[in-house]
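Deviation from plan, reported transparently: 5'-O-[(L-methionyl)-sulphamoyl]adenosine complex.
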Amino acid sequence: MDKKFYITTPIYYPSDNLHIGHTYCTVATDCVKRFKKMQGYDVFFTTGTDEHGQKIQEKAKEFGMEPKAYVDKIVANIKKLWEALDIDYDAFIRSTDEVHEKNVQRIFQKLYDKGDIYKGEYEGYYCTPCEAFWTEAQLGEGHTCPDCGRETHLTHEESYFFRLSNYKDRLLELYEKNPEFIEPAFRKNEMVKNFFETGEGLEDLSVSRSTFDWGVKVPFDDKHVVYVWIDALSCYLSALGLGTENSKMDEFWPADVHFVGKEIIRFHVIIWPAILMALDLPLPKKVFGHGWILFDNDKMSKSKGNVIYPEPIISLYGVDALKYFLLREFSFGSDGSFNIEKFMQRLNSDLANDLGNLLSRTVSMISKYNDGIIEDKNVSEDVDDNLKDMAVSVVDEVEKAMEHYHFSNALESIWKLIRRTNKYVDETEPWKLAKDENSRDRLLTVLYNLAETLRIVSILIHPFIENTSLEIRKQLGIKADINWDDSKVFGLIEDGTLVEKGNVIFPRLDINEEIEKFNAENEALLKSRINAKKSEETSNSKLQDIKEEVTIDDLEKLDIRVAKVLEVIDHPNADKLYVLKLKIGTEERQIVTNLKSKYSKEELTGKKILVLVNLKPIKLRGVESVGMLLAAEDENKEISIASTLEDIKDGAKIC
Ligand code: MSP
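Because the crystal trials were delayed, the predicted structure below was used instead.
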């Protein structure tokens, strides 16, 4: 097969479970795969997870876990979600996959050898949650991140840089010669304006970090890990098996389209093509930047408690209801607001009233008036031509809309036909025809036309809502394999086909009741996720930075005793030190301590403290110190001298 198509979703951060916003892009990508497959393409679809970086490392630490163990759990949930949604991906690439890590090192080395990567020093404002560096000019008010609005911090560090500035002219030429490289067009205008005209997007790019270590090591400098974008973007190549014997690079690279959210377009249309140019690899044909799903016009966030997860929608209303809503309600290139009431309304009007009703009345009438047999008697009237013309022309509209990923328009065209067909029922009034024996052939012709239109609908909706498509075909008794071109012809159902009455495909919902049900389910999931995390936190809350294991014999070597502070004097040669005169059982001795800034002489005099008495004596600023007192220090450098719970004789041994 020589028609190849490569499509990708971004690789998602597994810092938390994915919500409906992430689901949106994956569902859209899956729909394109199914659509292209039906059009005879050999399609490769990549998704995956972006697992390195400071944010993940910090999140894992919060739970007392190693980063890999932490992401493993979330990745398992993500895969479960895609399975529940029947997402037909070909590769799920994890940036921690060994083969990918090797690719990243090879790519980094190659760019370094070519002189496209050099070592320098980075100063910038870093936003940890977004893993992005910003220049001062790019920041929002109060040094906040222009993407997420959170506070950034100024960082200096040694870093490797990619010579992005060298690629400015070739990038501009790319956009000029390929006006469809960035879609929708308004995103391209935004990009060029923001990053090229101000020049900010084309400063050399910092591509390594030395302040954390959860990442792929720079092959020739293990103090550094490869900073996230070279690592993340090259996943699109690793997913095709780059660097393995089974590489599909020749077959599928360059990508036909990368679907990405609007905030990461710039990485895909500036940095990614420049890296590929430096590697002498062909460039992706298109980057499509979709809008965001907001919640009641606000950004979804767990801290605001307004996150919508897909799981409750799937369990209450099914996969197809969710897919249909996502692809129909929002225009792919623009932002849209999720609202559960809108979801219910769509379900009721489009799926239950329009489509569900058309199927159930068609199958019922064929069962009732002709024992379930579909037969064409060819007794046509003008109104039939109108329906037939529309039925075979919708496919054109769908194809045109899908060329530009206008999912919503494609579905709107299909629903125009569905609504037209419902009107055809009202116009032809089969129940009246059934009363008159002379109209029998006309009646069967009308019923045939209804079944035939539904057959065409079942093909057109197949890439969007496959389960429903198959259910329609089952109820119509169609045994033939589904084939895209069959939507272009009217009259393919064979005479004698027997319908199979089935369940109502989308029952009408009582909106108020359902909203309550949904909210309860979504909140329960949110709570259970928070609780699961809490208990994970508790069960994994091991001590951090614990020292090497010792045995009881090691402990036996230490002689720790209770000591009474007899006197506190200033160190003669050091302003910050005290000399403590101690009584330890029968012996008196002195130790030097740096606790002057914390305790006054009065606070210490007369106290019982703990002292390691068999530590080799040393001189501190000319004064001998025989032993060391014990104290506790927390991460904020708060100090407290160790003592015993009750008063006990000095000289007592710690055992
Ligand atoms: N790991 C990077 C992508 C690397 S691609 C080489 C990343 N991950 S992410 O998990 O933060 O976001 C992944 C995608 O989810 C982005 O395209 C982002 O726009 C999308 N979405 C996150 N929230 C969204 C909505 N509320 N609505 C729609 N898409 C949203 O960025």
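Residues 20 and 310 are 5 Å apart (CA to CA). We consider this an acceptable substitute for the interim report.
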